[in-house]
């Protein structure tokens, strides 16, 4: 166990305080999402789906950027991850279109 | 000597296992992307019931969603504890992660059982097939994660999870958080956004 | 990572190192990328000959009208297994043989990033191939075509084990491909020697890298589709059940979402190989290296946006048809750019027509023909006339035989001396080349006409009134010629092992790093990790630091492991359990897999 075992930290990871804040935001967004589902004035409108999707994307981004450290980490990881993520998103839209999903009328 | 793999020269200065693992996660995006695409493309096309509106249990699933979120929090706290060399907190937070993960699986077990009791099986209709395969695949990932994290917990009890093993924990964490974000998507597109007006 | 005293590794240079590497056990437990490469090559070549034999039987049946040599059922099994074998068990793993052997040498690494994962990939591939082919023993070889369209594959229309063998076999092979892809991506990103920047990577490594990226994204799609198919067959799910509201086109979409990128998985490595051979035998650097690299990337990206051109006949409507048609034609641009670059590489060079070069030049010619017929059926109205006829069969064989196989053969002749330390015989090589070149054109060119005249593919016989008997006979004669040419190739392999000229480090005078060391390379590859200062290290003065013949200090070489094999067996047992619908067998397989993964993770294994 010499000195060099303590390799440089894999970039400065966020602090515990940041993690707790992120978790609080995630919880908050989840509460809002579920509330929207139950408030008829909102859930009956056409805005429900897009707003829920945006909120879900925000949660997704927060976890990936902070809990999975994509933000402070090397860009390599961001590229390796976002390219197939984007591809998967486009694939979902394309298949829904080609197979006539109800979302797209 | 203990960190030969890490100390090795690498072209990017990044850990090779971490690069491979992110590649794996990218691959998983396509796996779940295909499952979600199929679910959405088939949504509302079942010729018989039960339908999602009749059967999906939002209150219970909201709780299980929260549980999985908390497990992600516990996971990052476990990682910081490992990096600090804080054995007590490492064990505490790993136990919490495993515990929350197991709770999520218990919720899913309950959900699947109640659906079957209400007449929705994997072969009942398109909804049953696409729903069970999508969420079942996710559940399988959670199960693998629980086994993986339990292994790390045992290592920690044996004092074999010091700061020099932080990368092992970080990679397990990447897996765990990814499983969490997949659920974030599933919760929204399967549970909250349903076909037709919600009564 | 483990305690140094407990490693199973060995120190190369010492004589004791040879013990752990000798004998059958040494090969089974090997984690040396060079040995795994040889295992891949031998296995894939065997499957290639098997797939060729299946093709010969098909051609013999079609040699005459109303032939009765083979019944319809056997014919279905033969064309299904021919396609499946050539794609998944021959071309892909033959490329994998080169990935394994050549990439670490080209980038200046001692091995791949994860040597045991690499061994695992090979064993899963081997067992998957055996699983698939064992179906012949039960008279239940897959018979639904290599793209297995729903709902022909449903339990209702295919009640036997045939389709299950196919779906489960492909699933096993997918695991092997994915594991290898993660490994090679990590290797190429992170294991390059100092100075080996991305834009100094040899083009073969570049194209292989793009190939692996495509594998990572494409295989999950087919994995899910195959799960749907098997669940429909085993558990009565409704994914492809029209009665339940399902859509049989879902299968076609998912299959071709995978299947079209798969075409690039097959061709890009071959493009990489000829991009190494052409400059070497023209004594000129590759023309427009960056453009070739970017074209490869562009092909890899656009390849994702064209899959439905396989489905024009399903009636997707004018918007989808127009979109997929125009994007398909767009792909011709980066492909054409590459072709011009290869030609420009030869232009004004000191061309030496050795066997690898002959195959590389033939690759350009034949692949261009296949590319042009591809652009023809990129147009929906034309495609409707050509789809499911022999015209498409001609196209795919110009691309995959004229392209992929010619490229791989070029690679075999080119790198053979590096791998085995002896050159192949040039005279036999040239005989082989000309017979393949002529045989290939005699076999497949008439199929263009046969198809345009209306003969459908996958039908086991035809009437004399079609007037296609002569052309079919010509095609069959060509196939026999091709079969014969392979015998010459195998004889050449054998001859070389006895009498082949001993290869020097760099018998062709090539520019890339793998030629800087002895042939075959020592177990540790590089005595010291070199520093690279040029894209053409061996053609540039001071392009690479000196690599001494003898390591200045002992080089640690990781020891073998048998857990990858055990894990692969666990996977096989699981899938056999799924095939015979035995829960206990499936659970047993998973247990073996889990145990071996843990043993693997905790065994001392030093990199």
Task: Describe the model.
The complex is a heterotrimer of chains A (105), B (199) and C (607). Chain A has helices at residues 16-38, 40-43, 48-67, 75-98. The radius of gyration of chain A is 19 Å and the shape is flat. Mean pLDDT of chain A is 86; it is low at 1-10. Chain A is built from 4 helices and no strands. In chain B, 76% of the residues lie in helices and 0% in strands. Chain B is elongated. Mean pLDDT of chain B is 92; it is low at 1-7. With 607 residues, chain C is an all-alpha fold. In chain C, helix 7 (203-235) packs antiparallel against helix 8. Chains in contact: A-B, A-C, B-C. Chain A binds chain C through residues 76, 80, 84, 87, 91, 95, 98-99, and chain C through 185, 189, 216-217, 221, 247, 249-250, 253, 257, 304, 308, 316, 320.
Radius of gyration of chain A: 19 Å
Low-confidence stretches of chain C: 1-19
| Average of per-residue pLDDT values of chain C | 94
Helix content of chain C: 55-70%
Question: What's the layout of helices and strands?
Answer:
The complex is a heterotrimer of chains A (105), B (199) and C (607).
Chain A: H1 16-38, H2 40-43, H3 48-67, H4 75-98
Chain B: H1 4-7, H2 16-42, H3 52-55, H4 58-84, H5 87-117, H6 126-157, H7 166-192
Chain C: E1 10-12, H1 17-21, H2 23-28, H3 33-62, H4 72-107, H5 115-134, H6 162-190, H7 203-235, H8 249-282, H9 289-302, H10 318-346, H11 355-376, H12 380-386, H13 390-420, H14 426-452, H15 469-499, E2 555-557, H16 563-579, H17 583-602
Antiparallel strand pairs in C: 1-2
Helix pairs in contact in C: 3-4, 3-5, 3-15, 4-5, 4-6, 4-8, 4-13, 5-6, 5-16, 6-7, 6-16, 7-8, 7-9, 8-11, 8-13, 9-10, 10-11, 11-13, 11-14, 13-14, 14-15, 16-17
């Amino acid at each position: 166990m010499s000195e060099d075992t303590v390799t440089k930290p894999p970039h400065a990871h966020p602090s515990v305080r940041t993690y707790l804040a992120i978790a609080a935001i995630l919880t908050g967004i989840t509460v809002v999402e579920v509330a929207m589902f139950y408030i008829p004035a909102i859930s009956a409108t056409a805005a429900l789906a897009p707003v829920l999707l945006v909120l879900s994307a925000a949660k997704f981004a927060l976890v990936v950027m902070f809990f999975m450290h994509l933000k402070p980490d090397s860009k390599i990881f961001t590229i390796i991850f976002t390219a197939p993520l984007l591809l998967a998103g486009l694939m979902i839209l394309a298949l829904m279109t080609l197979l006539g999903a109800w979302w797209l009328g | 000597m203990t960190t030969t793999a890490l100390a090795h020269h690498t072209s990017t200065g990044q850990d090779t296992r971490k690069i491979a693992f992110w590649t794996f996660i990218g691959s998983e995006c396509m796996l779940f992307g295909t499952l979600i695409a199929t679910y959405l493309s088939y949504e509302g096309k079942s010729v018989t019931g039960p339908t999602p509106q009749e059967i999906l249990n939002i209150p219970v699933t909201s709780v299980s969603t929260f549980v999985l979120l908390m497990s992600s929090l516990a996971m990052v706290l476990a990682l910081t504890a490992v990096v600090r060399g804080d054995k007590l907190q490492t064990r505490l937070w790993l136990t919490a992660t495993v515990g929350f993960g197991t709770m999520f699986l218990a919720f899913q077990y309950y959900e699947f059982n109640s659906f079957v009791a209400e007449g929705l099986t994997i072969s009942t209709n398109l909804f049953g097939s696409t729903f069970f395969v999508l969420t079942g695949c996710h559940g399988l990932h959670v199960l693998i994660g629980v086994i993986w994290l339990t292994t790390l917990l045992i290592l920690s009890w044996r004092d074999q999870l010091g700061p020099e093993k932080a990368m092992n924990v970080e990679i397990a964490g990447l897996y765990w958080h990814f499983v969490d974000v997949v659920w974030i998507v599933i919760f929204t597109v399967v549970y909250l956004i349903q076909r037709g007006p919600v009564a | 990572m483990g305690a140094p005293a407990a490693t199973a590794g060995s120190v190369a240079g010492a004589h004791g190192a040879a013990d752990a590497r000798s004998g059958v056990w040494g090969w089974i437990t090997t984690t040396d990328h060079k040995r795994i490469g040889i295992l891949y090559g031998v296995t894939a070549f065997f499957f290639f000959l098997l797939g060729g034999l299946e093709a010969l039987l098909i051609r013999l049946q079609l040699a005459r009208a109303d032939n009765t040599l083979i019944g319809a059922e056997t014919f279905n099994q033969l064309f299904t297994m021919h396609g499946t074998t050539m794609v998944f068990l021959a071309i892909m793993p033959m490329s994998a043989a080169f990935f394994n052997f050549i990439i670490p040498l080209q980038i200046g690494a001692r091995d791949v990033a994860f040597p045991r994962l690499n061994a695992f990939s090979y064993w899963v591939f081997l067992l998957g191939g055996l699983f698939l082919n064992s179906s012949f023993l039960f008279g239940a070889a897959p018979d639904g075509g290599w793209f297995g369209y729903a709902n022909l594959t449903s339990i209702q229309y295919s009640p036997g084990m045939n389709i299950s063998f196919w779906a489960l076999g492909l699933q096993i092979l997918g695991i092997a491909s994915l594991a290898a892809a993660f490994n090679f991506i990590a290797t190429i990103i992170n294991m390059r020697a100092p100075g080996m920047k991305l834009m100094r990577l040899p083009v073969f490594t570049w194209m292989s890298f793009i190939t692996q990226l495509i594998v990572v994204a494409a295989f999950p799609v087919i994995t899910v589709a195959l799960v749907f198919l098997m669940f429909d067959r085993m558990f009565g799910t409704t994914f492809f059940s029209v009665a339940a509201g399902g859509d049989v086109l879902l299968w076609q979409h998912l299959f071709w979402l995978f299947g079209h990128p798969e075409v690039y998985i097959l061709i890009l490595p071959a493009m990489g190989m000829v991009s190494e051979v052409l400059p070497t035998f023209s004594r000129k650097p590759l023309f427009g290296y960056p453009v070739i690299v970017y074209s490869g990337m562009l092909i890899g990206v656009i390849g994702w946006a064209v899959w439905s051109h396989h489905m024009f006949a399903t009636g997707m409507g004018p918007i989808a048809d127009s979109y997929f048609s125009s994007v398909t034609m767009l792909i011709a641009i980066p492909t054409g750019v590459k072709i011009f670059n290869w030609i420009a590489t030869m232009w004004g060079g000191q061309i030496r027509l050795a066997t690898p070069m002959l195959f590389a030049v033939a690759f350009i010619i034949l692949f261009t023909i296949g590319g042009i017929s591809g652009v023809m059926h990129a147009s929906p109205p034309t495609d409707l006339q050509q789809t499911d006829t022999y015209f498409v069969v001609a196209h795919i064989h110009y691309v995959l035989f004229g392209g992929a196989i010619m490229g791989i053969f070029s690679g075999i002749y080119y790198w053979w001396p590096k791998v085995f330390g002896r050159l192949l015989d040039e005279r036999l090589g040239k005989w082989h080349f000309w017979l393949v070149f002529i045989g290939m054109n005699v076999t497949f060119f008439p199929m263009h006409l046969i198809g345009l005249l209306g003969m459908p593919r996958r039908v086991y016989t035809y009437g004399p009134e079609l007037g296609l008997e002569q052309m079919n006979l010509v095609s069959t004669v060509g196939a026999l010629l091709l079969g014969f040419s392979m015998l010459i190739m195998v004889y050449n392999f054998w001859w070389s092992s006895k009498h082949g000229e001993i290869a020097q480090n760099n018998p062709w005078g090539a520019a890339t790093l793998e030629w800087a060391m002895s042939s075959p390379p020592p177990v540790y590859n590089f005595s010291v990790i070199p520093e690279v200062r040029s894209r053409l290290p061996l053609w540039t003065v001071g392009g690479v630091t000196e690599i001494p013949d003898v390591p200045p200090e002992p080089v640690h070489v990781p020891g073998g492991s048998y857990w990858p094999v055990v894990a692969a067996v666990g996977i096989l047992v699981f899938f056999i359990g799924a095939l015979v619908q035995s829960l206990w067998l499936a659970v047993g397989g998973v247990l073996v897999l889990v145990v071996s993964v843990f043993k693997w993770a905790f065994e001392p294994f030093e990199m």
